[in-house]
Specification:
Bound molecules: adenosine-5'-diphosphate, zinc ion
Radius of gyration: 29 Å
Helix content: 25-40%
Structural class: alpha/beta
Shape: globular
CATH architecture of the largest domain: 3-Layer(aba) Sandwich
Largest sheet: 7 strands, parallel
């Protein structure tokens, strides 16, 4: 009798594929193990999803598995189920979802379980060799000497700074060889947890949260809502202590921008355990190593960004998501999964508690807390000595501005700087100016491939499109009238920093944005210099808004926030509330009182007033009511379909046909097709279709039904399209 396997492959088709198990297979197939199989003219690596003794395909068409890669499943059962659940929820193939959940090295066929390191060591001939013969090759001599003491890992070899050719020469002589050293995982932390620093005595609110969370058995989700500096991290640490001391591992997810050495060190300092750090900047190998350490239980703490969500744990104990509202938890390319939602699902499947922490919880999470689906632990006081911040609003309608700065803000800055403190200015626009204008004819220079203006980058001598990456040298003449009267329109961080340096020559200015932190390590360097007090004025975009702890910053100014407040996106007020609160949280974190000043031409805006007077918590609750009345998420459940084509009509026709398949009734709404907010990008026209349902289940069923028909539409061939469930921004 023949045996067959069904295999999930990283291809967009929403189906699995059948293959024959050859009698020569080295081990019996297992669900969740990887195989290599022929697919068209390629060989692909996929995961076994089913094992059967029958196959519907005609015998002539069925091909055999080419290679079995794992004697055991690479994904634990809960992780496999999570991936399956996510594939269905996000309407992608299981193979595509697996592509997200397995490290690249494993997708390329690397060994999943081996815990070995490569060592350099002497061969018997090398041990006998006479070092005196190497007098004229000192590098070789040194290496031979080192190796006669002990074998070296690659890292240790690199640290010696000897040339690779010296190593090669010794290998060629047959004196040195590479050797795989298999290691047993060190699990000693499970029986004997050592701590490196004594924790703070928790305040009442912290203690309540910690006690309740530590008593939880099995799955349970908690929202820890506390302003910046209220001691959330201290709560995580206390919960970790309990978890680790029971021999269980913890998975901590942080926003992309929050994974700083500061954050990691906070966990390293408290516990003497191995911490695996996982983020997208790792090499394939380093990532696989961290994955293996987590999987075998050697790494007690796993800390990482979005994709670390799928890291396996031998002894799963708890999942913590810090800054749970952060948009970087939603994947924007490929499968648009949300790490927060999947983390909650994973906690459920692993039967372990989940903590979501934030000063500014998303409306989704807040809604779940208010409906008692989550436990809710507020931390209302700033821990330690930090005091509440003073807030002010500067109406700039009647004010002359200097590079975007009003006189009251400049005066306030001077006071704080003269008192020896640091000042942080937030402007979410990098570059010198957001547009290049002709003073003769008023023409604004526009990207030829997008519906967007070029940003002027004076220091680079370029105009750049921030949407498609298009760039040109700054033109000498207007493209429309030929005039040379060209100038920047509006203010970007580059210009602001330059002006500030002239206004305050005695106080060094640092600019933190994507342009100044492009080089690896430069963000860390800037941050460290800020900590050392080398800079007094900090200018930055989003990058400066989150996570960092600046004890000497006492004044925070927000420059041009009107754009953030008035966007077509229904999430704009929520995002603005979060941003404002996070930026404001940078002020006065230590013993010094903080001030926040906000410049706006919308002084009477009720949203702004609401936010400043009542704080994010109340503001968010009234936003939530508005969403419910408007039948928007989280009340209803949304899918956004994006289509792009060289001809706008092609994208429109496709989306219209898709809309025709979908139901329209009191509990299912279809909006569009309509142009995307950025109508043309990189030469393509972009259209979108929104649909939403009152019930999540209905959305699932109707979308699946639509997807079965959509590939037969003739218009599908003329555009590229993608589907985004629970879209976080409508761009
Ligand atoms: P969050 O994560 O909410 O921003 P942290 O946990 O970083 O807050 O706490 C802010 C500061 O207050 C840190 O320096 C921390 O060491 C200190 N802190 C936290 N909890 C306590 C406490 N119970 N007693 C004294 N200091 C505390
Ligand atoms: Zn002109
Ligand atoms: Zn462009």
């Amino acid at each position: 009798m023949s045996l067959f396997v069904e295999v999930a492959l990283p291809v967009p088709m929403r189906q699995n594929f059948s293959y024959l198990v050859p009698t020569t297979a080295p081990f019996p197939p297992q669900i969740g193990a990887r195989v290599k199989v022929p697919f068209g003219r390629q060989q692909l690596i996929g995961l076994i999803t089913n094992i059967t003794d029958q196959c519907a395909l005609p015998a002539a068409q069925i091909k055999a598995v080419s290679e079995f890669l794992d004697p055991e499943p690479v994904l634990s059962e809960p992780l496999y189920k999570l991936t399956q659940w996510a594939a269905r929820y996000y309407f992608c193939s299981l193979g595509q979802m697996l592509n997200q959940s397995l490290p690249a090295a494993l997708r390329k066929g690397a060994d999943a379980s081996r815990q070995s390191i490569t060592q350099l060591r002497l061969t018997p001939a090398g041990t006998e060799a006479d070092i005196g013969t190497l007098k004229r090759a000192p590098a070789q001599g040194k290496l031979l000497q080192e190796l006669s003491r002990q074998p070296l890992t690659d890292e240790e070899f690199n640290a010696l700074e000897l040339s690779k050719s010296a190593l090669k020469a010794l290998c060629d002589k047959g004196w040195v060889e590479k050797h795989e050293l298999v290691q047993q995982p060190d699990l000693s932390w499970r029986t004997q947890l050592e701590m490196d620093e004594t924790p703070h005595k928790l305040n009442q609110e912290q203690a309540v949260a910690v006690t309740a969370i530590n008593q939880q058995d099995g799955f349970c989700c908690s929202l820890l809502e506390g302003v910046t500096g209220s001691g959330k991290t201290e709560v995580y640490l206390a919960v970790l202590e309990h978890c680790l001391s029971q021999g269980k591992q913890a998975l901590i997810l942080v926003p992309e921008i929050g994974l700083t050495p500061q954050t990691i060190n906070r966990f390293r300092r408290r516990f003497k355990v191995k911490v695996a750090v996982i983020h997208s900047g790792l090499t394939d190998n380093a990532r696989l190593n961290a994955w293996r350490q987590a999987r075998c239980g050697e790494a007690a703490i796993i800390i990482g960004t979005r994709s670390a969500l799928f890291t396996p744990m031998a002894f799963p104990g708890i999942i913590i998501l810090d800054e749970e509202h952060d948009a970087s938890f939603k994947q924007q390319e490929g499968v648009g999964y949300h790490a927060r939602d999947l983390a909650v699902m994973r906690g459920h499947l692993e039967q372990i508690p989940v903590i979501l922490g934030s000063a500014t919880p998303s409306l989704e999470t807040l809604n779940n807390a208010i409906n008692s689906r989550y436990h809710h632990f507020p931390l209302t006081k700033r821990a330690g000595a930090a005091q509440q911040v003073r807030q002010g609003l500067i109406d700039i309608r009647s004010q002359p501005l200097t590079a975007g700065l009003s006189q009251p803000l400049i005066n306030e800055m001077r006071m704080h700087l003269n008192a020896g403190n640091q000042v942080l200015l937030f402007l979410n626009r990098r570059g010198f100016a957001p547009a290049l204008i002709c003073h003769e004819c008023g023409y604004l220079h526009e990207c030829d491939r997008c519906d967007a203006f070029f940003t002027l980058h004076q220091s680079l001598g370029e105009i750049c499109c921030h949407h498609c990456g298009n760039q040109y040298p700054i033109p000498r003449q207007c493209h429309q009238c030929g005039s040379t009267m060209l100038a920047g329109q509006g203010i970007g961080t580059e210009q602001l920093a330059g002006t500030l340096q002239k206004l305050f020559p005695d106080y060094p200015v640092v600019r933190i944005d994507r342009d100044t932190t492009r080089l690896k390590g430069s963000l860390e360097e800037h941050l460290a210099a800020i900590q050392r007090g080398e800079y007094k004025i900090l200018v930055g975009t989003q990058m400066l808004a989150k996570g960092h702890h600046f004890p000497d910053v006492t004044l925070v100014g927000l420059l041009d926030v009107d754009g953030a407040l008035f966007s077509a996106d229904f999430r704009a007020p929520e995002r603005f509330g979060q941003l404002y609160t996070q930026v404001a949280g940078r002020a006065g974190r230590a013993a010094k009182p903080g001030t926040v000043l906000l410049q706006t031409s919308q002084g009477e805006n009720p949203l702004l007033r609401d936010l400043m007077q009542r704080g994010y918590g109340e503001f968010a609750r009234s936003q939530l009511l508005e969403r419910q009345q408007a039948l928007l998420p989280p009340a209803w459940h949304m899918v956004l379909v994006r289509a792009e084509a060289h001809q706008a009509e092609d994208a429109d026709a496709f989306l219209r046909a898709m809309a025709d398949i979908l139901p329209k009734d009191a509990e299912f709404e279809v909006i569009g097709p309509m142009p995307a907010p950025l109508d043309r990008k990189a030469g393509k026209y972009r259209r979108q279709l929104l649909f939403q349902a009152k019930a999540r289940h209905r959305l699932q069923i109707e979308t699946e039904r639509m997807l079965q028909q959509v590939n037969q539409l003739p218009s599908v061939k003329k555009c590229r399209w993608s589907l985004d469930r629970d879209p976080q921004d409508l761009l």
